Amino acid sequence: MADIKRILFATDFSDNSKYALTFALSIAQKYDATLFVLHVIQQPSYPLGMYAEISFDAMDKFSQSISEAVEKEMRALKEKELQGFQKYECLIVHGTPFLEILRTAKEKEADLIVVGTHGRTGLDHVLFGSTAEKVVRRAHCPVMSVRLPGKEFRML
Predict the structure, then answer these.
(1) Which residue, 146, 142, 133, is CA-closest to 24?
(2) In what order do the strands lie in the sheet with 112-117?
(3) In Å, what is the CA distance from 128 to each residue of 47, 86, 134?
(4) The dihedral of CA 116, 85, 39, 77: what is its sign?
(5) Predicted model pTM
(6) Torsions phi, psi of 74, nearest 5?
(7) Which CATH class is domain 6-147?
(8) What CA–CA distance (Å, rounded) separates 100 from 93?
(9) What is the dihedral of CA 52, 58, 64, 70, to 10 degrees?
(10) Distance (Å, rounded) from C-alpha 148 to C-alpha 111?
């Protein structure tokens, strides 16, 4: 088996991500690896013409409130989930989630990427896509995609 020394865990702070973190943390502990905990703040997209209705000041305040909420979530994650684990680094970046996950994985020379997945299928998957799927298809290293247990596959 490959030597796992650097693990990138991407989180959106959802229940799926919190569950996936248990796997990332377990692997990091087993292999004495450094765990990079990444959250990507996606630039909000506004419908065409909406910019005329929103002031730059309002957009700045909105962005600031998102950043503050993310920092609060990251602090809570460190206090609750990473308590007692020493080899980690938390990162908050802005951009397109799958691109930033891939960029950070290369930058940090990750041996493994761990992501939670919502398990969307059908039209939901077509409309929203899957960050996890895009990461799996393009990553330079293995990717572990973790889904919450109890969600059964069903045909539509």
Answers:
(1) 146
(2) 88-94, 34-41, 6-10, 112-117, 143-147
(3) 16, 36, 12
(4) positive
(5) 0.85
(6) -65, -40
(7) alpha beta
(8) 8
(9) -70
(10) 23
Distance CA 61, CA 134 (A): 31
Range from 17-21, 84-88, 118-122, 131-135 carrying the lowest mean pLDDT: 118-122
Residue with tokens 């503050």: 68
Q: In Å, what is the CA distance from 111 to each residue of 9, 44, 119, 132? A: 11, 31, 24, 16
The predicted-structure confidence for 27-81, as pLDDT tens digits, reads as follows 999 999 999 999 999 976 655 555 556 677 777 788 889 999 999 999 999 999 9
The pLDDT tens digits for 94-109 are 999 999 999 999 999 9
Give me the long-range contacts of 75-81 (CB less than 8 A, separation at least 24): 77/11, 77/13, 77/21, 77/37, 81/18, 81/21, 81/25
